[in-house]
Amino acid sequence: MIYDPELIEHIQSLPCERFDGQVFRTTGLKSDPTAFSTNGGRWAPPDGNNGGCSILYTSLERNGALAEVASYLSLLTPVPQKSLALHTLEVAPQKTLRLAIGDFSKLGIDASSYNKRNYEKTQLVGAVINFLELDGLIAPSARWNCANLMIFGDNYPLDAKLRIVSTEEISFEAWNTFGSD
C-alpha cells in the first residue's frame, strides 16, 4: 500500500505515550477476549486488504465496551438475546498515540460523521499507525462518551502485558439497556 506522506508526517508529529492499565472488552461468552481481530473495523482495514492489520478493540470504560457491542448487535435481525461476557483486561502498549476530536480534521476524518459506519478515513489512519509500528491508539468512542484503546497486534510485543483480570456475564436486558438506570 502507498501511504499519503502528509498523513504519515502528521501522525509522526503527534506525541506517543505509554499506557499501562485496565481496559474493558465485551465478547461472546465463549470467545477469547485476548484474541486480536483481522476482520477490520473503524481503525483497521480487513486483513488481506492493503494495510490490513490485527487489532484488539477495548474501551477505557465499562459502558464504552458495552455500547460498542450493543451498537453492532442492534443492527442484527432479530437482535440476539444471548448473554455476553464483559472482561477487564490488563494491557501495556508502549507506543500509544492519543487522538482527540480536534486532531481529526488534519487526519482527513470528518468529526461530524464519526458516529456513522463509514470507516474509510479512519482505516487509512489505522493502517499508517500500524505501518509506523505503533502498538496502541487511544481515540474517542463513537458510541459512548469515553475513550477506546485499540491495540495493534502486529506491533504489540509478544511478552507485553495482556492478562484477563475478571469476566462478568451480562444478560441481554443489561447490555441492551446499559446506562439507562
Structure description:
- The chain has helices at residues 5-13, 62-73, 120-131, 172-176; strands spanning 16-17, 21-28, 55-59, 84-91, 96-98, 136-140, 147-152, 162-170.
- The chain is α+β, with helices and mostly antiparallel strands and 181 residues long.
- The protein has one domain (5-176).
- A hairpin with a 6-residue loop joins strand 6 and strand 7 (147-152).
- The longest helix is centred in the middle third of the chain and has 12 residues, at 62-73.
- The radius of gyration is 16 Å and the shape is globular.
- The mean pLDDT is 90.
Distance between the termini: 47 Å
Order of helices and strands: HEEEHEEHEEEH
Estimated structural class: alpha+beta
Q: How many helical stretches?
A: 4
Beta content comes to: 25-35%
What characterizes the major β-sheet? 5 strands, mixed
Taking strands numbered 1, 2, ... along the chain, how are they ordered across the largest sheet?
Answer: 1-5-6-7-3
User: What number of structural domains do the residues give?
Assistant: 1
Percent helix, as a range, is 10-25%
Q: Overall 3D geometry?
A: globular
Gyration radius, to the nearest Å?
Answer: 16 Å
Mean pLDDT, all residues: 90
Would you report the number of β strands?
8
Low-confidence stretches: none
